[in-house]
Backbone:
């Protein structure tokens, strides 16, 4: 049996709800996000999990902890899975970014792979650090199911890489808060089985249109 990775975007954070770019800022879950975390944990309670790896930011670690508790598993933080650094955009709303960085904001909406955030990272930077650990996990010879809790940018770049569209495929992928994407090894390319499964969220889904992504 090959290795399976359940790739999960963190639940809604306070700044997701307010439409603020957060990047590396350590923002807690919103009330809806806390409810989403419990719904994901309930969905995965019956799974046999080998381990849980997560971004160290609390919006991801909170979900990883909720998933791990009934399995007596402690999440392992991995800095490589943290969100893209938005640099000078962090803490600003979309309207504030549009006013202060109009040209770059337009490029981000239309050609995000061409943007390197001032004081932050580019999609290429995030791809280089976050895609290899997922590929390595899928290639493990021991079978089993791993949970990886990460962020919007990382999840979308992993999916783009799995579809052989590294970086430039970022815009064609969308993942919701607390959505589960299933990858099955041994190789990352061709591993995608399901994308953004949110059946467990019922009436607790979010509207991505309001988020600063």
Residues:
């Amino acid at each position: 049996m090959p290795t399976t990775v359940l790739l999960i975007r963190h639940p809604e954070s306070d700044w997701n709800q307010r439409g603020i770019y957060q990047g590396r800022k350590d923002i807690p879950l919103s009330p809806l996000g806390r409810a989403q975390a419990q719904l994901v944990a309930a969905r995965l309670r019956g799974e046999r999990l080998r381990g849980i790896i997560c971004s160290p930011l609390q919006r991801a670690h909170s979900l990883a902890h909720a998933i791990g508790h009934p399995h007596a598993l402690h999440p392992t933080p991995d800095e490589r899975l943290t969100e893209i650094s938005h640099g000078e955009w962090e803490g600003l709303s979309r309207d504030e970014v549009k006013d202060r960085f109009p040209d770059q904001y337009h490029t981000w909406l239309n050609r995000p792979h061409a943007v390197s955030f001032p004081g932050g990272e580019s999609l290429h930077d995030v791809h280089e650090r976050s895609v290899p650990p997922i590929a390595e996990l899928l290639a493990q010879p021991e079978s089993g199911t791993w949970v990886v809790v990460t962020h919007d940018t990382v999840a979308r770049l992993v999916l783009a890489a799995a579809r052989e569209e590294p970086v430039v495929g970022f815009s064609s992928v969308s993942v919701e808060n607390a959505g589960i994407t299933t990858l099955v090894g041994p190789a990352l390319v061709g591993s995608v089985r399901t994308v953004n499964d949110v059946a467990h969220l019922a009436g607790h889904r979010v509207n991505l249109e309001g988020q600063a992504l």
Observations:
- The longest strand covers residues 3-9.
- Residues 123-138 form the longest helix (16 residues).
- Strands lie at 3-9, 49-54, 76-77, 144-150, 180-184, 192-197.
- The chain has a mean pLDDT of 97.
